[in-house]
Amino acid sequence: MNEFSHESTSPELIHLLGHEERTPAHTHSRGHLVYPASGVLSLVTIDGSWIAPSNRVVWVPAGFEHQHRAHGATDMRVVFLPADMAEALIPRPAVLATTPLAREALLALTGPRKRTRESTDRLRFVAIDELTATGEQPLHLPEPRDDRLLAVTRLVEQDLSIPASLADLGRQVGASERTLTRLFQQETGMTFRQWRAELRVHRALLLLADGMSVYDTAAECGWANPGSFITVFTSLVGMTPGRYQHSVTSM
């Protein structure tokens, strides 16, 4: 049986994933925290994708079918939570900002030292307290369901360097700008500009992890100048592109 198709009885797991390695789609009966101690992880579900660099933690509630994808060599740590602890977190997948204390708790939980149940639970509570204090982070890209909206998102994803307007994209898929504006808000909870900015940052995280320069990443992802890119990236990721790139390539 594939190791991702069942749940270990251990409260923690370590998986070393190669660049572009994917796990099969799977579910777990317990909610779990997924932390990329190094590298970058994508979490993919039918509702969209979440992306987490090493200063973020992915929360996956029990029963959600999902896949992981590694960007760069990735050290993935998994900490399962008992149901009573999981209740402290939101009932849907999310990206949470980590803190130095949460990071150390997660690393300790997935380290080689054998711990008592009491010691394990104390560390779990520390991680939960820290992660719930920082709150959900805007690194989720919802997956639309409407065929017209899906067609638009695919066109944008094909080449982010082309700043096509929503009206232009609508003409290509046979939908009005007004209709698409309404659908974006209904199905993603974002405006088209917000959704595209989120997509650009997702793509930038991957390109920077692959070693592309900040200047070239900005151009590849459709920003008119590096300054605008740095501002948007920093607001969503919590660090500058240069600092982020150093953090994922120096490990």
UniProtKB/TrEMBL annotation:
SUPFAM superfamilies: Homeodomain-like, RmlC-like cupins. Keywords: Transcription, Transcription regulation. The keyword Metal-binding does not apply. GO terms for molecular function: DNA-binding transcription factor activity; sequence-specific DNA binding. The keyword ATP-binding does not apply. It holds the Pfam family HTH_18. It comes from Brevibacterium koreense. Gene3D superfamilies: Homeodomain-like, Jelly Rolls. This is Helix-turn-helix transcriptional regulator. Residues 150-247 form the HTH araC/xylS-type domain.
